[in-house]
């Protein structure tokens, strides 16, 4: 399945909207977007997963790596618009306690 990624740069954060499936085949596409943003270390990152129908551990790994780099720059990672199924992945892995995971899609 194809992955659709839209990005918007705001004054103090990046907004990344993802649609499709996040798995071992598509995560590299999102990684190409997130790695330069996180390396820059100047903005928080909000990733909207409202239109993501499936995510596996590869997606979780990308978010963990992104969080680690952002934390080094004292920036935050927000995961928005998660479905019940995807929220459960963050919950059972304990990642929900380490990053901002929200069913809502509003940027704070």
TrEMBL record:
InterPro entries: Anti-sigma_ant, STAS_dom, STAS_dom_sf. Pfam families: STAS. Keywords: Phosphoprotein. The keyword Zinc does not apply. Residues 3-108 form the STAS domain. Gene3D superfamilies: STAS domain (3.30.750.24). One of its GO terms (molecular function) is anti-sigma factor antagonist activity. The keyword rRNA-binding does not apply. Belongs to the anti-sigma-factor antagonist family. Positive regulator of sigma-B activity. Non-phosphorylated RsbV binds to RsbW, preventing its association with sigma-B. When phosphorylated, releases RsbW, which is then free to complex with and inactivate sigma-B. This is Anti-sigma factor antagonist. The lineage of its organism: Bacteria, Bacillati, Bacillota, Bacilli, Bacillales.
